[in-house]
């Protein structure tokens, strides 16, 4: 059987736990396509999985990588409209840190001829996550006020671009001044360095009567302040968990202000649900990307052999935007 190179962490640990090995090349099921991967996006869940902190859904490919850019090499018998030779961006259930991967054909998007695999690999996971949390869960609308944490991260910076595109009033937080400068260059006037000031105090100076939406990558450490900052019918989407432990919730405030607190993670979605997520990306944001009205930030493109360095870069929060591995 044909083989390929893979990168995984057979024993959980730090970035140096990553190992390159040979494995059997996958074959597509009737509803799948086989993709020759040209580039793979590096995501925080990859680092969490490598460290042993991300329980995989049953039956998930244990090889890292949940999004890629590449070329379809083979299509299953039930696949219609995606022929071999099509260049694509794809959401994967796992297996992206490899030469080849299989994907449900409904989770694959054909990309323009002038896109390289790096660009294709840099958008689909982040845009799907940002769209679902900002618009499907939080229903962010023009003129509303949104607080976006981790504004220099891949998903955070994408959320900033999306919120700007719909005419929302944005407050973003970052932990470094160079990232704050980048966001201001994008036309975001309210950027808070949370290492210099308490973000909640700073936000109250900007909007004394509160905000409508919170894009929350932090979790327990900020929950009380978020509840206090949200105004009538405010919405909060939990997107990440950069803090840990238990926290207290002011249920009275949630009731009296009629707040909505909702959580989101993309990977455990069913195949049908994920297909709907991808279709919303295709309809709403792919035209914006193709037309050049939105240009996401790519921080670094590293060769596949430097996967450990990519993980170190991600975990030290050195990146502004996406980190991509070129296969």
From TrEMBL:
Keywords: NADP, Oxidoreductase. One of its GO terms (molecular function) is NADPH binding. Pfam families: ADH_N, ADH_zinc_N. Residues 13-325 form the Enoyl reductase (ER) domain. NCBIfam families: quinone_pig3. This is Enoyl reductase (ER) domain-containing protein.
